[in-house]
Description:
This protein is of the alpha/beta class. It has two domains: 3-187, Rossmann fold, CATH 3.40.50.1260; 195-404, 3-Layer(aba) Sandwich (Rossmann fold), CATH 3.40.50.1260. Helices cover 35% and strands 15% of the residues. It has helices spanning 33-48, 75-82, 96-100, 117-120, 133-153, 189-202, 222-229, 242-248, 263-276, 317-328, 349-365, 374-382, 396-403, 409-412; strands at residues 12-16, 51-55, 87-89, 107-110, 157-160, 185-187, 209-213, 234-237, 279-282, 285-289, 298-302, 311-315, 332-336, 368-371, 391-392. Helix 1 (33-48) crosses helix 2, helix 7 (222-229) runs parallel beside helix 9 (263-276) and helix 8 (242-248) crosses helix 9. The longest helix has 21 residues, at 133-153. It starts with 11 loop residues before the first strand and ends with a helix. InterPro entries: Phosphoglycerate_kinase (IPR001576), Phosphoglycerate_kinase_N (IPR015824), Phosphoglycerate_kinase_sf (IPR036043). ATP binds at residues 221, 312, 343, 373-376. GO terms for molecular function: ADP binding; ATP binding; phosphoglycerate kinase activity.
Amino acid sequence: MKIENFNFAGHKAIVRVDFNVPLDANGNVTDDTRIRGALPTLKKILSDGGALIMMSHMGKPKGKVKPELSLSQIVKNVSAALGVEVKFAKDAGNAEAEASSLKGGEALLLENLRYYAEEEGKPVGVEKGTPEYDAAKAEMKNRQKDFAKKLASYADVYVNDAFGTAHRKHASTAVIADYFDADHKMLGLLMEKEVKAIDNVLKNAEHPFTAIIGGSKVSSKLAVIKNLLDKVDNLIIGGGMGYTFIKAQGGKIGNSLHEDDLMPEALNVIKAAKEKGVNLSLSVATVAGDKFSNDANRQTVDIYNIPDGWEGMDASEQSVENWKKIIMSSKTILWNGPVGVFEFENFSRGTGDIAKAVAEATQKNGAYSLVGGGDSVAAVNKFGLADKVSYVSTGGGAMLEAIEGKILPGVAAIE
Ligand code: AMP
């Protein structure tokens, strides 16, 4: 079912949201982006006249009740955002009474789902690889089903709007969907937008399609790079991960970040790009520092010849110029990961210039641009360009798994 086509009047909806918001030491919300992200879905349900039950995790209590991770701390924020006095159920696994008395237009928030180990469904207190593990895992899977069934019993419609956990097969994100028929389960509006943004680049990209992959490690993005090689025209590899590619080709990289064990994979990527006709563009020169610090001495050096005692920390002007030309000629752009240590002001120019180029290609050339994955999102925000790109994804891990080509369990359970 599509949420746009469903009238919630007379229905009780249980909605998986991502309210895993950061709190300060006094339990005050320091960034309510995630709460605001869920509002379109939540407000639709209430304005249709439906009864709204919200459920989420917060942090990693690993099956234990941890008061500092209680969702009771955010009730006032959710109430203010929704404009409705939100009720609270202290025990997510025993909320029948609160759920059944809920009327149309009213809202209820369940306590942190991960107070129950059943939510994640991982056996607790048994080591992987021990003889007891398999039996414990099977038992936990059954308990997970029971927990999901219990959550499902509170409502007659299930909505998943938690993109941040869509790559997890948890009780509330996937297993619960088994207890609703196709007409009574749906993606929320935020999830729909995220899925569409990913489809826009992975399935319906207009060419030339350019991916900019930066960040620290090849190991964490290798699957992403491999999947993209079959889709993109241009692949820009920058940031810390670039030095593994340079060293693998015989370059001298000084103290730059690299992963020796991934050098063969880096060479495979270079070879595969050639075979597939993908234009792979690495940095040509780097702004190197003599220590990993904002106040390091700086010099711009040939990336294949970084002096001993120095490490590459930002893309040079020439590298960014080359990349800018590619970006400005693209119709689809995917950006994940900074091209330098952008947290240090003195080494942030390259990443800032990439953010500007992506924004310019979007605004001036009508390119479709998707920015996603933790640090590149922080970067577009830092440079005030979030509303100048086509879409900024809210889910780091989920977005990465999607661009690896994996099916997200949270989406598959509904579709
Ligand atoms: P990731 O989470 O893999 O996207 O990596 C993001 C991190 O990579 C950021 O914290 C950057 O500071 C870091 N990074 C980017 N370029 C470099 C570099 N040349 N050397 C060290 N760290 C880098």
